[in-house]
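Late entry, written up from scratch paper. The run itself happened at the end of the previous shift, but nothing got recorded in the book at the time, so transcribing now.
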Amino acid sequence: MTDRVSLVVNGRPISAGAGQTLLDAGLASGQAIPHDCATGQCDTCRVRIHSGSVDDAGTRIGDTVLACRARLTADIAIEFDEVPDVVRRAGIVDSVVELTAEIVEVTVALRKRLIYLPGQYLRVSFAGLPARDYSPTLRMDGSGELNELIFQIRRQPDGVVSPQLGGRIGPGTAVKVEGPFGAAFHRLGRGRLVVVSSGVGFAPAWAVARASRLREPKRDLLVVAGTREPQNLYMRPALEWLRDRGAATILTCSGRNPPSDARAGRPTLHLPRLTRDDTVLAAGAPEMVAAVQFLAAATGATCYADPFYAATHKPDRSPPSDTNFLQRFLQRVAGNRTAKTDPVA
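Output as recorded:
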């Protein structure tokens, strides 16, 4: 007979079998833990250990583990933030607007509202084309309707979907949406919130920063946003809105000839000294996100991260044998600190 252990999920006790993953045990008992890929790639299922122990399968960072990989060995209590249920919605493209020569803003009108938290992402399929993950956001002036989804998307020259935005994909194109997913969303807090983005990673960054300014206007907020090419610095109006409401902002450009209002170099070069009281959200290029994770882990800051992979990136869907280099590195840096790093694929 399989040994039974006690698993408490957000205060709800369930009985589970030793050797089960936290995710499987929760699902078998009707207690769903937020997840997406379930193979250890996306980190949507990262949970906090409140008490007890678990075989973390090499996924531990601070007091968190991946529920799809960690296996039960003894009684344990875990916690995660409650998020909206994953649903499917249908709609049509309302507009495609060029923000720059490479970046477009796509507005989708839904038949029925989809509830998500600022910073989460959705799985979007245009007219039967392959699904892609995009983060809904707001227009640069902060506008957006409840039944709208607004995406800021960079056209990938060798892509299957994004080059067709504004062409085959235009007003009236049918859209299917599933979600929300991801753990890099806005949370109320007292310590400083540091939001870092590169490229169209500004989409979820803008959603989080605006939500923070509206919901907690007295909280210290720093937004660092950058791109490689000067012509892609489309986020100026949003940064101005944030500054007008007391937030600190830094614009960066890592390419040649940065404009006068942008600092030269990558966003990580201009981060302030982090402390364990900070909450950091990073979105954009995987290399930039990994650098922010490292800096947060080194100081004990809480970090939620959303790396943007190009569609040509095809992660190995086979379960990882142990843990990847970045996780091992972060574990070593973090030590016994309580950094929490929650990437989203």
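Residues 26 and 32 are 6 Å apart (CA to CA).
(Scratch paper discarded after transcription.)
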